[in-house]
Amino acid sequence: MIHPESLKQLYPILFDLIFKLKWSWGNFGFNRGKISSYCKNLWYDKDGN
User: Fold this and answer.
1) In angstroms, rounded to a whole number, what is the distance separating the alpha carbons of residues 10 and 28?
2) Alpha carbon distance 5, 45 (integer Å)
3) Could you give the CA distance from residue 6 to residue 13 in angstroms, rounded to a whole number?
4) d(CA 11, CA 24)
């Protein structure tokens, strides 16, 4: 059984982790979009279209 006091100490850490994960995932999605458009540009340049 988890003690309420230790749980109180864990909550901020959990929230911090979740926030960081969400932020990095959003950032990753943004970067992925940039990378895919960059690859498309390279592909079209190669094709000459």
Assistant:
1) 27
2) 61
3) 11
4) 20
Using CA atoms, how far apart are residues 45 and 18, in angstroms rounded to an integer? 40
Quick one: how far is CA 19 from the chain centroid? 10
Q: What is the pLDDT of residue 7?
A: 77
Q: For 1-49, write each residue's pLDDT tens digit.
A: 667 788 788 888 888 888 888 877 777 667 777 777 877 777 776 655 4
The H-assigned helical ranges of the chain are 4-47
Q: Give Cα separations from 48 to 15, 17, 31, 45 (angstroms).
A: 49, 46, 26, 5
